[in-house]
From TrEMBL:
This is Iron complex transport system substrate-binding protein. InterPro entries: ABC_Transporter_SBP, ABC_transptr_periplasmic_BD. It comes from Pseudonocardia alni (Amycolata alni). It holds the Pfam family Peripla_BP_2. Transmembrane segments: none annotated. Keywords: Signal. Residues 1-29 form the signal peptide. It comes from the Bacteria.
Length: 350
């Protein structure tokens, strides 16, 4: 999930248990498809893929987590931009993580992708795909590679930067089911989605505050904070936990806003995306030093929750984030006690 001009420029300017590793028999071609292919809906349009794909190139920890949750690592030829999430992924998916071939520590170039000779690339707009690097779905098709686009990142209109076309939980379900179909792991996709829905149902039955507390997702930034609107995964996470996203009226996924917007929202808590190079301590220091945020109740009372990148960007670990946000809200007495216990604890300890 690329920040504007990448994260360094922003700073300068301002559950699943591990699925079985054995691969099922190849899925049959869908009706009307040529033999050996399958068609799924991706970004609102039909897209044809090999059935099953044999050599996926997967970018970013959240999409890697989708493949691991499906037990489809046997279909992966290479991954990129995984290292910052490697410990989180190992905690959830075990030794399968270390069996993945890492082609690039950050977002790849087109040449890096071509060198691995994939039949399918799994990435997203600003999650690896982008015109600046000439790594786009259209360019991949020219090279004989079928692109899959992360649904959360689907552009609302061609040539425009705003992303998001469905609500985030729907986007996640669609990706899990589509990737299950593409890799021949449809039963695993059904299992992962069923687990997601069971846990969402439990959160939905938890008692709610009369007025949901407003929380702000602080991704990164100094002069301008980078956060997430109503089409981003944090929207779904925050709502499931029983709170209100301060940017729920912003029709985008990940975007910048003003510090004035943060102060006006009067958030009861701050949630942080943990990844380098801006540390949790640096983000807290920014909030405590700015005259427009240092007196906010959330800042005065240190209501901060820091969770890894792979839990905030669209993927199966979003439900783990929702459970942990709920637990934090209860600790801060912002929502009633529910008796729910998060399945995992992903708060960084160092």
């Amino acid at each position: 999930m690329t920040r504007p001009l990448r994260l360094s420029a922003v700073l300068a300017a301002g559950v699943v248990v591990l699925a079985a590793c054995s691969a099922p028999a190849p899925a049959p071609a869908a009706a009307g498809d040529p033999a050996g292919t399958v068609t799924v809906q991706n970004c609102g349009a039909p897209a044809q893929f090999p059935a099953p794909a044999q050599r996926l190139f997967v970018n970013d920890g959240n999409m890697i987590s989708m493949v691991l949750a499906l037990g489809a690592q046997d279909r992966v030829t290479a991954v990129s931009s995984m290292q910052r999430d490697a410990d989180t992924l190992r905690r959830h998916y075990g030794a399968a993580v270390d069996g993945l071939a890492q082609a690039a520590p950050e977002y790849p170039t087109l040449e890096t992708v071509l060198a691995r000779d994939p039949d399918v690339m799994v990435a997203g707009w600003n999650y690896g795909y982008g015109e600046a690097k000439n790594l786009t779905p259209a360019r991949l098709r020219e090279q004989g590679i079928t692109p899959y686009v992360l649904t959360e990142s689907c552009r609302q209109a061609d040539g425009q930067s705003a992303r998001g076309i469905v609500d985030p939980w729907t986007a996640l379900r669609d990706d899990l089911q589509n990737l299950g179909t593409i890799t021949g792991h449809t039963a695993d996709a059904d299992r992962v989605v069923a687990d997601l829905d069971t846990r969402l149902d439990a959160l939905g039955k938890a008692p709610r505050a009369a007025t949901p507390p407003t929380v702000f997702l602080f991704d990164s930034g100094t002069d301008t904070p980078f956060s997430s609107g109503r089409f981003g995964a944090p929207q779904a996470i925050i709502e499931a936990a029983g709170a209100r996203n301060a940017l729920s009226d912003v029709d985008d996924t990940w975007t910048t806003v003003s510090w004035e917007r943060v102060a006006t929202a009067q958030p009861a808590a701050f949630l942080f995306v943990d990844y380098p190079p801006q540390t949790f301590a640096e983000k807290v220091a920014i909030l405590k030093s700015r005259p427009d945020t240092r007196d906010l109740p959330a800042v005065r009372e240190n209501r901060f929750l820091n969770l890894p990148y792979a839990l905030w960007t669209s993927g199966p670990l979003n439900i783990d984030a929702a459970e942990q946000v709920r637990a934090a809200l209860e600790r801060w007495n912002l929502v009633p006690a529910s008796g729910l216990t998060p399945r995992s604890d992903d708060v960084p300890r160092s």
